[in-house]
Amino acid sequence: MIQEEESNPEKNFFKNLSSEHIRQAIEDLPEEWRLTVILADIEDYSYKEIAEVTKFPIGTVMSKLHRGRNLLRKKLLKYVKEEKLIKE
């Protein structure tokens, strides 16, 4: 298991990021995706709680969260590769 994680840079790349890089990548997300990512991943809200706060149906919350996380992952992975913090 440990060898698998070490050989998979996408799973392991967060270790090389500062909180500032992560914060900036989150701030760069589109507003509606940013809010769902912050509520779910930082504030630990459930889908239901996010739906109540945002007034979006739960399915929409799930979709926005999925898209927001994917874009965040791409932004962070791009940064890590540009800075050569992981091997490609």
Compact description:
This protein is mainly alpha-helical and 88 residues long. The protein has helices at 2-7, 9-12, 19-27, 31-42, 47-54, 58-82.
Question: Which characteristics define this entry?
Answer:
88 residues, 0% strand, RNA_pol_sigma-70-like, WH-like_DNA-bd_sf, sigma factor, sigma factor activity
Structural account:
With 88 residues, this protein is an all-alpha fold. The protein has a single domain, classed as Winged helix-like DNA-binding domain superfamily/Winged helix DNA-binding domain (Arc Repressor Mutant, subunit A), CATH 1.10.10.10. It is built from six helices and no strands. α4 packs across α6 and α5 packs across α6. 12% of the residues are buried. The N terminus is likely disordered. It holds the Pfam family Sigma70_r4_2.
Evaluate the radius of gyration.
15 Å
Beta-strand proportion? under 5%
Record field, number of beta strands: 0
Number of domains: 1
Helix-strand blueprint:
Elements: H1 2-7, H2 9-12, H3 19-27, H4 31-42, H5 47-54, H6 58-82
Helix pairs in contact: 4-6, 5-6
